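queue> holo job accepted (5-O-phosphono-beta-D-ribofuranosylamine)
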Amino acid sequence: MAPTPFELRLGFLASHGGSNLQAILDAITSGDLAAQAQVVISNNSASKSLERATSQGIPALHISSQTHGENLDQFLAQTLLDHKVNLLVLAGYMKKTGPAVLKNFPNHILNIHPALLPKFGGQGMYGMKVHQAVIQAKENTSGATIHLVNAEYDKGPILAQRKVPVLPTDTPETLQIKVLEQEHLLYPETLKKIASGEIDLEAY
Ligand code: GRF
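queue> job finished
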């Protein structure tokens, strides 16, 4: 059967620098990735991701437990629906995805993790801690993983990975840089495969 193309209307959740967000926006701007960026949301009002979105005319919203308390999950889900999002991209989002968001986007939430899952994932495994653990375990390969998000941290089906060698001279800092470079390639290329139907999210 021929693959079914999927028209990407992306929503983003990001907490910090948003370099993955930027890599995806750049791929859209250059015409390499056929997608619409509908909205960028951050739990952190100072997140650079909000600036990045605003400078490209994309709606940028600060939504957090401080702004919305107990209604946060429901409000996030409604906001994404209001902006006609059909695929939610977590790009360095440091909060757990709640049941309302999960329920409204079944199999349509992606996350990127800076290691080769299922290794070096789970609660508490984020940022530099991941790279420290990889080096401590004397792995000779690390990389980045894109997976579907479910109710458990880093446990959803794996969609794509890119690898990097871990050299004896690597530190957590140098490894982070190498992995991040791969992340910036992996997110746009995976989204392209979803857009073309080569990766069929309905099949998961
Ligand atoms: C990335 O390393 C990603 O794997 C992890 O958070 C980091 C986000 O970086 N989930 P940025 O905000 O996209 O620059």
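queue> Residues 172-196 form the longest helix (25 residues).
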